[in-house]
Amino acid sequence: MQSQPLYTTRYGRAVVGDAFALMGELQDESVDLVMTSPPFALRRQKSYGNVEENEYVAWIVPFAKEVFRVLKQTGSFVLDLGGAYRAGVPSRSLYNFRVLLTLCDEVGFHLAEDFYWFNPAKLPSPIEWVNKRKIRAKDSVNTIWWFSKTDFPKADVRKVLAPYSDRMKKLIQDPESFYQPKKRPSGHDISAGFGKDNGGAIPSNLLSIPNTDSNSSYLWLCKEFGLERHPARFPAELPAFFIKMLTNEGDTVLDIFGGSNTTGFTAEALGRKWMTFDLRRDYLVASVFRFLEGRPVEVVRRILSALASDDANVILEDVVCNLANGSNAKVTRVDLIATQEETRQMVLLEEEGKYQARQSTTRRRRGKPPA
Ligand SMILES: C[S@@+](CC[C@H](N)C(=O)[O-])C[C@H]1O[C@@H](n2cnc3c(N)ncnc32)[C@H](O)[C@@H]1O
Predict the structure, then answer these.
(1) Which range, 16-25, 35-44, 121-130, 319-328, has the best average confidence (pLDDT)?
(2) Is 214 designated active site?
(3) 257 CA to middle of ligand 1, Å?
């Protein structure tokens, strides 16, 4: 593509600009997976702007048509859409279902499978219907539409096997004594082969992933350098699931509404080529923190000042992306922690709601009365 990236890594590039225009620079059938979470049709506006529910389908269709064009025949388009209520009434907007129907009926996508992302950590909302009047349950599930260009997109669930249940582990250890082969009332013929160890269980289309990142290097460095953290990040486990299942190493993953570049970071960690677009330069500037885990403060500062220049095209060399560390791990950079230790600890602990508790424990240990 011709547009200059803001930064590049070994496998990817983050580019500031309008996703529709930037996709126009990509060749037909050149991308394996588009994984994205657009602005939702929310009543409560996010700082990056949201589209009204009655204009939503018209807004997203041009992007979807470009996605269709740039996807390979075997490619997939995974679209995360949060649910929303209609204005002023306790009934749900159907916008995410309208998007589903229109993308299949008018754009030509197939619905490979509908997924549901359950975020157990989601706060109750809207306050009026859930907290105050208590007439609606907490909404903690996003719809994730997995679209494909054909009926047989590239996919292999063996790459995303779930851990076996304890019951299944026992069955695998001793299939004969634990399970008698028989026909089930449902008609399924469960043979002894059912007890074979396949390395894990077939995952379901309900993905239970808490969105609880309060301690990543990304958040830590945003705080440290006074940059706005993205207000609607998804957890790395979400793109990781689809990237693993739907692509191979070396394939190309695109996030057209990239935000804090969770998708690019995840793709890098998994050895996939990636491109991330976002309209907001400040979000992509801060997203560089994802790739700077463990770097000395001076290096981070130098990279940030290079990104501030209008024609920045920063090459990040030797980035180490570890999914286990990058999204949730505690920051261990000694040089950052050493200075202003108390302030930083406070920020982290406050985020977890533990600061007060810790203060009183310390006072007790020092033999002082509670504050
Ligand atoms: C829900 S956020 C994505 C968050 C991302 N998944 C993450 O984990 O950080 C949607 C993003 O779309 C961006 N956006 C909105 N309209 C856009 C457009 N036309 N082109 C590119 N980006 C756009 C917003 O700036 C926002 O950062």
Answers:
(1) 16-25
(2) no
(3) 4
